[in-house]
Amino acid sequence: MNTPLASASGNASINASPPAPAALPVLPRPSADEFAAVVEHGAYMPLSQFGVIDVTGDDAASFLHGQLTNDVQHLDAAHARLAGYCSAKGRLLASFLSWRSGDTIRLLVSKDVQAAVQKRLSMFVLRAKAKLADTSGELAVIGFAGDVRGALSGVFDALPDGVHVQVDGAAGSLIRVPDALERLRYLWIGPKAQVDALLPSLDGKLKRVSPAVWDWLDIRAGEPRITQPVVEQFVPQMVNYDVLGAVNFRKGCYPGQEVVARSQYRGTIKRRTSLANVAGETDTVRPGAELFHSDDPGQPCGMIVNAAAAQHGGVDLLVEIKLAALDAGSVHVGAADGPALRFLPLPYGLPAEV
InterPro entries of this UniProt entry (predicted)? Predict the structure, then answer.
């Protein structure tokens, strides 16, 4: 299955180890007004943390179908899909939101892994009629959250009526993404010059806020994002991608498919992603930081996937963790005496593991 990927040369690989801890600044903290704008009213935010890869050509869909964890071959113009890109060992190298824009398939990806992922994918195009291009500089990515439908109706003739439904208009694509804190959320991706020209018309209706608010909302939606510090750390089920619809278990082969399928059908999913909060502000609470259980301080029991400053203080987290570690005791960042996690309910249920 996907033999070329299994034999990929080292210069095509993505760094699999999280960077060593460093004296990093505290995560950016939006103002109280920015949080309130989303929760109580409506807001928009330019999302500089994302890049876009355009895939074109007669074989674009079939090529991506053979590389990603979700069904791209049958992706239609009215829907977007979450998908993962795995190593041959079934570990996630990247996560994408994929959708069609005309004859192009677009992939929204964390900007810090985009170049490496695009290079790796390009190596396996081989004879396929498909071309990958970085269009981040040509496109604007804007997030909307809260009471925003009225403002968006001035830009788009119709609005998506369900999660991962998309509509195309003269100003680009509008995609509804999972709600956070029961607030609607949308992504607008369109030609940069055109989007920039239209944004001022929204300023009287919506507050412009920091992109860090979107990171927090993604966490509260329970949707993990693969960024550089956690590349090649997780099988898709460890970050709930099977629950979130990012894995199609009926499609054909893709890199790591055997590992992902074996985890699903042999009852070996002993780790999941949970939502948590850590009090205070600390530079140790970062993606890639290991977690330790109070009853077993000698070995890590999990890892931080995503982190963002929280509305009511501290840092909200998505953490990949051994399910057994949630039964009793306490979980801490960095060491068994590090900052303690307070677990919160996810906005969706997880299957009972055996």
Answer: GCVT_N, YgfZ/GCV_T_CS, YgfZ/GcvT
